Amino acid sequence: MLELTVDLGDRSYPIFIGSGTLSDAAKLTPYVRAKQVAIVTNETVAPLYLDKLKALLNDFDVIDVVLPDGEAFKNLQTLEAVFDGLLQARHNRATTLIALGGGVVGDMTGFAAACYQRGVEFIQIPTTVLSQVDSSVGGKTGVNHPLGKNMIGAFHQPNAVIIDTDLLATLPDRELSAGIAEIIKYGLICDSEFFTWLQANIAKLMARDTDALVYAIHRSCADKANVVAEDEKESGIRAILNLGHTFGHAIETHLGYGEWLHGEAVAAGMVMAARLSCRLGDISREQVEQIKALLQQANLPVLPPEGMTPDDFLSIMAVDKKVLDSRLRLVLLEQVGKAVVTSEFDRSKLDEVLAEMCVC
Ligand SMILES: NC(=O)c1ccc[n+]([C@@H]2O[C@H](COP(=O)([O-])OP(=O)(O)OC[C@H]3O[C@@H](n4cnc5c(N)ncnc54)[C@H](O)[C@@H]3O)[C@@H](O)[C@H]2O)c1
Ligand SMILES: O=C(O)C(=O)C[C@@H](O)[C@H](O)[C@H](O)COP(=O)(O)O
Ligand SMILES: [Zn+2]
């Protein structure tokens, strides 16, 4: 079992990573501070893992809230079900919410915890690759709005993150690939050595080799924990975790949430960001091809969806959360392994990349 810490002073918390961590009550119960516990999960994950989790909580008063499955349900209306469950069971400020599921369940549970009675504690038990390497760590919580991804939310850190790699056995291949997109992101933004490791080990990851998966999850969480510890609320460096997301969120919003998976949209978005970085003279064409090749080996898209126009991108990107004083800010690559967040780029180059990549 591996352990990392997200270092946030007196709000620091552990990330436990390994096979079988969800069979170990000692990893969970110290982070539940009172009797009331509410497990939030969804209709796909509940039949697979809810009983396993409940078995660790025999000494607690446990309720569960089972949400519908899908990005399309990551909204304020679905959140009502969590508040209904908590209020009907008379949960008070000492309750602990536990998110058992992928990033959708994690983001919604965290946001419910941030809001319920003005803030209660929560624990993340991520069950997808994407949530194990990214969404369960760092305290970004929230829901989508029809006009933009994650537009309603809060920063609210969990008490602990418990990652059991055994749970990935039931994950569909398409979801594995989507998670690998965010893993590749870390190599690109801050860890060139990891990028090189990924080039050598992508086949193992795709074959679900346990050692490779544990290594990639641990390294991704370590990279994310470092960034979050430096800039918890994204006043600066944390925005590098958004590589590919300005384009990717535009794809998700334009298509309707759930058509493309988040990781798929981010993959295409990272190629768009890489192409722009190349056009601006930072990374080479060869490096863009290396990035594309790695994503393609993970069965990820490297082009935007057919029919999406430059104007479709620009109108949604205009409401991106990183926009400052009406100016678009993008995460670009200075090198493979070094991202920067900037509004100081030649806008005509963005137009050229969009025109070149959008197949209408
Ligand atoms: N908060 C953050 O920092 C952050 C970071 C990255 C992504 N996100 C958000 O995370 C979401 C994407 O998360 P995701 O990729 O985990 O998608 P998801 O939560 O929709 O899960 C993917 C699918 O896998 C199913 N599933 C989950 N665990 C399973 C398991 N062990 N076995 C079988 N099926 C399983 C789910 O029911 C779902 O159908 C997006 O909403 C994205 O915006 C948030
Ligand atoms: O943790 C972060 O910071 C990230 O940006 C991680 C992203 O992978 C994630 O998709 C996040 O939800 C995006 O946040 P947003 O603020 O751009 O909505
Ligand atoms: Zn993401």
Please provide a written account of the structure:
With 360 residues, the protein is of the alpha/beta class. The protein has two domains: 2-170, Rossmann fold (3-Layer(aba) Sandwich), CATH 3.40.50.1970; 178-357, Up-down Bundle (Dehydroquinate synthase-like, alpha domain), CATH 1.20.1090.10. Helices cover 45% and strands 18% of the residues. It has 13 helices and eleven strands. The strands form four sheets. It has a four-stranded parallel beta sheet with strand order 4-3-5-6, with helices on both faces. A three-stranded mixed beta sheet has the order 1-2-9, covered by helices on one side. Helix 6 packs parallel to helix 10. The longest helix is centred in the middle third of the chain and has 21 residues, at 210-230. Bound molecules: nicotinamide-adenine-dinucleotide (NAD), ligand LNCXM5UN and zinc ion. Zinc ion binds at residues 134, 182, 245, 262, 266. The site of nicotinamide-adenine-dinucleotide has 29 residues, from helix 4, helix 5, helix 6 and helix 10. Residues 65-177 form the 3-dehydroquinate synthase N-terminal domain. GO terms for molecular function: 3-dehydroquinate synthase activity. It catalyses: 7-phospho-2-dehydro-3-deoxy-D-arabino-heptonate = 3-dehydroquinate + phosphate. InterPro entries: Dehydroquinate_synthase, DHQ_synth_AroB, DHQ_synth_fam, DHQS/DOIS_N, DHQS_C. Pathway: Metabolic intermediate biosynthesis; chorismate biosynthesis; chorismate from D-erythrose 4-phosphate and phosphoenolpyruvate: step 2/7.
CATH architecture of the largest domain: Up-down Bundle
Number of strands: 11
> How helical, in percent, are the residues?
40-55%
Relative strand content: 15-25%
> Quick one: biggest sheet?
4 strands, parallel
- The CATH homologous superfamily of the largest domain corresponds to Dehydroquinate synthase-like - alpha domain
Q: Give the radius of gyration.
A: 20 Å
Counted by DSSP, the helix tally is 13
Query: At the first level of CATH, what is the class of the largest domain?
Result: Mainly Alpha
- Spatial separation of the terminal alpha carbons: 49 Å
Heteromolecules bound: nicotinamide-adenine-dinucleotide, ligand LNCXM5UN, zinc ion
Count of structural domains? 2
Pathway: Metabolic intermediate biosynthesis; chorismate biosynthesis; chorismate from D-erythrose 4-phosphate and phosphoenolpyruvate: step 2/7
Family: Belongs to the sugar phosphate cyclases superfamily. Dehydroquinate synthase family.
GO molecular function, one term: 3-dehydroquinate synthase activity
Protein name: 3-dehydroquinate synthase
